[in-house]
Hints:
2 strands; 18% strand; alpha+beta; globular
Amino acid sequence: MVPLGENHLRTVVRAYVAHYHLERNHQGLDNKLIFPVQESYKIEDTIRCRERLGGMLRYYYHEAA
């Protein structure tokens, strides 16, 4: 990705930091999240995909019932 100015760079960095801390599994933490959100879900719940940075970063999660 090539930033097209300071505001664009700040937006990209903010999106990546949010993905890194909230959505990305970390091997050093036994594939857990840094700041896990307590979610209760059932096996039958729908799995959704959240994209950041135009689809460069993806996060899959269970949709709340």
